[in-house]
Amino acid sequence: MSNIEKTSVVSGFYKLSIEKRREFVSQFAQLTEEDTKIFTSSLDITTADRMIENVFGTFELPLGLAMNFLINGKDYLIPMATEESSVVAAASNAAKIARIKGGFSATCSQPLMIGQLQLLHVNDVASAAQSILKHKEQLLKLANSQDKILVDFGGGAKDLEVRILDSSLGPMIVTHLVVDVRDAMGANAVNTMCEALAPMLEEISGGKVRLKILSNLADKRLVKAIAIFDKEKMGGDHVVDAFLESYVLASIDPYRAATHNKGIMNGIDALIIATGNDFRAIESGAHAYAARNGHYTSLTSYYKNKDGDLVGEIELPMAVGVVGGAANMHPKAKLCRKILGIKTAQQLAEIVASLGLAQNFAAVFALSTVGIQKGHMSLHAKNIAVMAGAKGDEIEKLADKLIVDGKIKLDYAKDLLEKQRKKAR
Ligand code: NAD
After folding, report:
1. What is the pLDDT of residues 214-238, one digit of tens each?
2. Nearest protein CA to atom 34 of ligand 1, as residue
3. CB of 231 closer than 6 A to ligand 1?
4. What would the pLDDT profile of 310-361 be if each residue is shown by its tens digit?
5. Domains and their CATH numbers in the chain
6. Which of 84, 253, 283, 400 is catalytic?
7. Is 53 a catalytic residue?
8. Known active-site residue 84
9. What b/e readout covers 210-234, taking b as 16+ CB neighbours within 10 angstroms?
């Protein structure tokens, strides 16, 4: 497949056999035979044992491919590791609608992470804060001496900010170390620097440093994506209006915003996991950012443009890495990066944000039209069929009948299965 022909649009991809899907992705991403073996192998137990403690096995998740994504003018197949049905299909459908008007445009800031040092028992916090700032260059130099590799890559500690916070213990100084972590998620890098700075901060201030740790509210490391969703493809003006009416609730009500943002994270987490990144860090950053103005709200926003099409935007912190952590250790994480064809953390962040926007559009679109359950029915019916005891060909047959009868219930499935089996005898 040449680069010119390379497209992520494949009609009926979901109907292909698993073998054919693997063939397609191998050609698309120019995978080697070695790479394709990784599709079928599970995480080697020795590698797993190096990753966490007390290992006694590994845990598998389905890995699906989101299709149709056009991001910053380039086609992507997006690997998604998730246990939730309909997520991959929904993202692919949204991407198909978005590409009519040019797909997703995404940008991100410099990869700046924040490390916090909590300084207590200071006599005069105002003058101690001044002294810390006066020693900024020395403190940054000390921080950078901890990670020569990062500095060689153009990263390293770049700035120092001082905050004075009131607390039940009295005033405390919280120093923020701002570190450019380049292509790493950066937690270890930042934590190491923070720990190294603690003695010098104590000496400068006469206080005691307690916490020295990265902040997951990575609000200096933001990614944005925007897409236009074609109104005709959506079903016309009234559907765009219905969509906007549905969206408004997420912008004003935390009960709805929590579910709305959960839908965004359905997509985001699946890619974060597939690339070996820290999904708890991304989750906490996203939700803290959603509450940055004092009330929890939507991470996306929507409006109509002059043509009546729907415009969707997303903005959130994105602390992802393509080096360090599990991203380097897990063979499937490396394979997924190869499928994406990315080299930098910033490229990954832009794809993640686009996927989150697509996922959110798909959910709100379904909610404001047919409802969310319709899309879930097919796989849900199959799950119920399996729970009822169906095996092999019986599963599809029983699931189809459950959908036709409009009764996707376990007791009904058990009765039907018994009848089907009697009939087959
Ligand atoms: P890391 O320390 O494994 O790798 C980062 C290091 O790789 C850098 O410090 C640098 O020395 C080197 N490097 C080589 N090439 C680089 C490049 N191109 N760009 C940047 N650095 C390069 O990992 P990390 O990213 O510092 O930390 C991530 C891990 O920390 C994750 O596993 C995460 O789960 C964990 N963690 C998270 C938290 C948190 O989120 N609060 C806290 C502690 C640990």
Report:
1. 999 999 999 999 999 999 999 999 9
2. 278
3. no
4. 999 999 999 999 998 888 889 999 999 999 999 999 999 999 999 999 999 9
5. 13-106+222-369 (3.90.770.10), 112-214 (3.30.70.420), 374-424 (1.10.8)
6. 84
7. no
8. yes
9. eebebbbbbebbbbbbbbbbbbeeb
